[in-house]
Structure formats: C-alpha cells, structure tokens
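Try this one yourself first.
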C-alpha cells in the first residue's frame, strides 16, 4: 500500500513540446561565430554539440534557419529551437499551510522544481498551480514569488493577485540582498562538526562568489582566493551573504542544524555549511571546506534541507508568520 501511495504522489516522466531559447547579441559578443558564442554562453554543451544542432536546423539567426556558421553583430537574435525532451518524474502533491484566496503558502516536497530550468519546463510547481486553477475554473492562479532549490523542501509563498505578487516579489528581492525584518529558518542534516557547540549561534558572513565549472560554465560557491579584500582580488561577481547556524542535536551519524538566513543568495546555505566544514549529508556538489565537485550540478539531490519557518512577513498592513511541518528525520529526537 505504501509503494502504491508513493506512486500516486509522483507524476511519471513525460515528453514536453520543446522550447525556443533566444539571445540578443551584445557588443561584447560582436565578431564571434554563432556556435562559439553559444558554447561560451551555455557551457553545458561543447562547440561540436552546438554545431550538430546547427546542422540539424535547430538554430535560427534573425528568424531564418542558419545553414552554416557565421559571424554575428550587435543586435542579432539567435534562437535555439530545442526539440521536445522527456522531463523526469516529479512529486505533485503538497500540504497547504495557509490560503486566504490571495496568499497561498504551501509546504513543497523535495524533488519538485519551483520554476522552469535545469531540464524542467512543464514539470514545475508553477505549471502545476496554473493547471489546478484552470481545472477549478479560477480566474486567478497562485504563482510563486520566490524559489527553493528542487531538492529543498518547505515553505513557498504564492500570490494570486498581480499587485500582491508584485509587492511580495519586491519584498523578497530586498531580503535577498540585505538584512530586513523577514526571518527565514531552515533545518538540515549535516556532517558532524565537533567545533559546533549545542545551542550556541555561529554567524557566517562570507560572500558567495561566481566560479567556473566544467559542466555548466559558471557556478556559485565560496571565493577561490584567500583574501580579505574580495572585491579587489576576485575577478568574478561577489555577493554579500549572512547565515546564523545553531546545533540543535548531535546524533551518532549527523548534526541536526537550524539555519537562519538574513540574505537569500543562490545556494547560500549549502555553500556556507560546506565552508564551515558541515556540508549537507548527501550533497553531491558542495563539499567540506568549500570544495566544489566538478562532476555534479546544483540541481542534483541527495541531501535533506527544509525551509521550516518564515516569520515577520509584512504585507498590506498585516504581518504573517508561517511554519511547515518537519520531515521526520529533521525532528529532534530528545
């Protein structure tokens, strides 16, 4: 019976209808050839792979199918008409935490992408919410105003009214870049770190840096240089990030941590914990002491990270706090 219920909670892998990816040539790109630019910009595929797509008639330049590679100029529109592909199976059921016919707060399951990306187009929370609204003949559908990683479970805030969505999006954008009143609390299972003391809060303020990666071109991670003056010495982009980390419980095989973030940088918690020497158990990408695996990407799963609480969200004169039920493995055992 359990296996049957699990199958019902997942949508099977399905073919989508393909997608057209568009890019307008910038001054820095002028003089390049199409396939070399695409390989440079989209590092997941080599020059030879992009040449194969050109040969197959999948690349358009200014609305005309490109039959042979050519030099581009500023303002050219390059389009890759990606053929249909199979999207992997996803969980498609979730717990509703709050719903007032405008705001919708859900407890997202691990494995469900919030928005399109990383090979997912239709198999996303955004698409599922829209389909559900259409099925129920609702004029407005709830759309997420922020995102969690595919394998991060927990609280997602959605809004139905465009004006509410715009206001919330602005609030979350501010919370991404600077400390504000919103308090976002996560729980995670990590490798044991004997330097952590139960109940004592450790504050990390290391920046998040843009690094090169062989599979996807660029990836967020710790700065690769030992330097006090990051902005001067590091050539890539740098983002300020702040996390508060507390050891809730030490187990025989793991630490149960609570992480409160003041900022919301890409993969911030995974990166900060790895830099601390407390990487998420099962994280295939971010390894102990800031090492980044070269054979994995951010969308790979295997870890347990849960967006547990979101407190002090103020909107339209009301202040809200939400809490998502914890997975069993993230509940303190004592």
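Now uncover the answer:
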């Amino acid at each position: 019976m359990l296996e049957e219920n699990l199958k019902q909670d997942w949508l099977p892998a399905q073919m989508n209808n393909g997608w057209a990816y568009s890019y307008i040539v910038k001054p820095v790109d002028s003089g390049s050839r199409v396939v070399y630019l695409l390989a440079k910009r989209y590092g997941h595929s080599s020059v030879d792979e992009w040449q194969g797509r050109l040969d197959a008639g999948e690349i358009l330049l200014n609305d005309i199918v490109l039959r042979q590679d050519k030099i581009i100029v500023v303002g050219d529109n390059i389009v890759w008409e990606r053929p249909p592909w199979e999207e992997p199976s996803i969980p498609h059921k979730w717990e509703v935490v709050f719903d007032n016919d405008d705001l919708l707060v859900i407890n997202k399951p691990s494995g469900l992408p919030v928005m399109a990306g990383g090979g997912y187009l239709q198999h996303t929370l955004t698409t599922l919410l829209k389909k559900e609204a259409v099925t129920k003949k609702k004029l407005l559908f709830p759309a997420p105003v922020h995102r969690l990683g595919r394998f991060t479970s927990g609280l997602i805030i959605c809004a139905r009214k465009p004006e509410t969505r715009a206001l919330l999006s602005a609030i979350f954008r501010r919370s991404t870049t600077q400390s504000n009143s919103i308090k976002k609390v996560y729980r995670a299972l990590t490798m044991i770190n004997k330097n952590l003391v139960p109940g004592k809060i450790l504050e990390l303020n290391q920046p998040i840096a843009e690094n090169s990666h062989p599979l996807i071109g660029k990836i967020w991670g710790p700065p690769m240089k030992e330097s006090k003056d990051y902005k001067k010495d590091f050539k890539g982009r740098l983002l300020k990030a702040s996390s508060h980390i507390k050891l809730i419980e030490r187990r025989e095989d793991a630490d149960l941590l609570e992480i409160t973030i003041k900022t919301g940088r890409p993969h911030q918690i995974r990166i900060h914990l790895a830099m601390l020497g407390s990487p998420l158990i099962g994280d295939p990408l971010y390894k102990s002491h800031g090492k980044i695996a070269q054979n994995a990407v951010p969308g790979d799963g295997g870890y347990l990270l849960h967006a547990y609480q979101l407190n002090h969200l103020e909107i339209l004169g009301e202040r809200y706090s939400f809490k998502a039920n914890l997975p069993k493995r993230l509940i303190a055992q004592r």
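Discussion: The longest strand covers residues 305-315. The CA atoms of residues 92 and 235 lie 41 Å apart.
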